[in-house]
Amino acid sequence: MGQRDMAELEKLEEMYKNRNLLLRNGETGEKIIGYLCNFAPPELISAAGMIPYRITGKRGEIIEADDCVEPLGCPYIRNCFEQDLKGEMDFLDGRVISHSCDAAQRIYGIWNTYKKKQYSYLFNAPHGTSEWSRKFFKRELLFFKESLERFVGHKISEADIIDTIELYNQNRQLIKYLYSLRKEDPPRVTGSEILKILLTGCSIPPENFNVFLKKVMSEIAERKQSQEKSPRLMFWGCIIDDTNLFEMIEDMGAHIVIDDTCIGSKTCLFNIDTSGGVWEGLTKAYFDAFMCPRTDRGPGLNRFNYVLDLIREYNANGVIGYMLNFCDPHKMDYPDLRDYLDERGIPMLLIHDNYSLGNIEGVRTRIEGFIEMLSHA
């Protein structure tokens, strides 16, 4: 690995560790809007002249938030709320929460009560896939745009949105290239490195991220491939916003070659086509193609065909499922996904977490056994 390579990757490590500090100084003068889910497209926030910032948590004990909300609820959302109560998100000028699940929808009013911002918006994403649901989603995009316009005090033109979409499409093209390096055997970039890159990118302006991506991408591409081949895994499940678990899996000798998570392939392996209009393009990307289990796509198991396509494209040998406590959408989907993969002879291991990795030794033992099984298959 060259000196330049080491310098850029060390910079990535530093940016990843301090990603929640990158926008706090307010040096740009632009307003910063935190968003909890990608159903509300960050492209619209950028087109309004503001910086979108992906709200994430920090693994640890939840204390203050549980004085305000029911503790028997999503630990991830409670932890994000906890960080804001502690002042970790005071640099945000606004907050956008999507009705991605009941926990997110319910936290909206509570969050506004205890930590009010200059701007707040609940993006009401429908849970069905009918034509009426599609029309509803497209209209909600317009409501969201109009809300942003009222906040910034000026109109957001379609030209502004198209320019921003092109910027994000460039970003996704660069990320797609990095993902393509994971198809190699062994992969030239690790799953934990990809996750660090994506989490860092959620914390800086998109144009800055593109510049940084190009530097990191070119240097990773120059790496010499290792000769050591190991089991290749897909990582499926709830949101994961740090690399601890990925690094533990990789330290055991396995490669995470593809993910099916919302800070991952769900939101970075597509382009937005505006040839049919801005709103149609955004709807195709964030409604039609956003394969989140909170959306009812019917009882048929063919809704998991995209998972099988990813497994085949990235030549994964098995799947590790990651389940946060009280995550109803993923808990409802898991039994069907397990059956779907079983029928096709693809092994899957499900691990549970309360967003603390407090059961880390038990998780480690189970993953070690799973990797060993795949190694001898």
Outline of the structure:
The protein is α/β, with parallel strands linked by helices and 377 residues long. It is 48% helix and 11% strand.
Sequence-ordered SSE layout with sheet pairings:
Layout (H helix, E strand, L loop, with lengths): L2 H15 L14 E4 L6 H6 L3 E4 L20 H11 L8 E5 L3 H13 L4 E5 L7 H22 L5 H23 L10 H11 L4 H16 L10 E6 L6 H8 L3 E6 L4 H4 L9 H11 L16 H9 L4 E7 L3 H16 L4 E6 L6 H16 L2
Parallel strand pairs: 1-2, 1-3, 3-4, 5-6, 5-7, 7-8
Notable characteristics:
about 375 residues; alpha/beta; Rossmann fold; four-stranded parallel β-sheet; 14 helices; about 50% helix; globular; disordered N terminus
Number of helices: 14
Query: What fraction of residues sit in β-strands?
Result: 5-15%
Low-pLDDT runs of 5+ residues are 1-5
- The structural class is alpha/beta
Architecture per CATH nomenclature, i.e. the level-2 architecture of the domain at 26-156? 3-Layer(aba) Sandwich
Q: Give the CATH level 1 class of the domain at 26-156.
A: Alpha Beta
The average pLDDT score comes to: 92
Describe the protein's architecture and organization.
The protein has 14 helices and eight strands. A four-stranded parallel sheet has the order 2-1-3-4, sandwiched between helices. Strands 6-5-7-8 form a four-stranded parallel sheet, sandwiched between helices. The radius of gyration is 20 Å and the shape is globular. The N terminus is likely disordered.
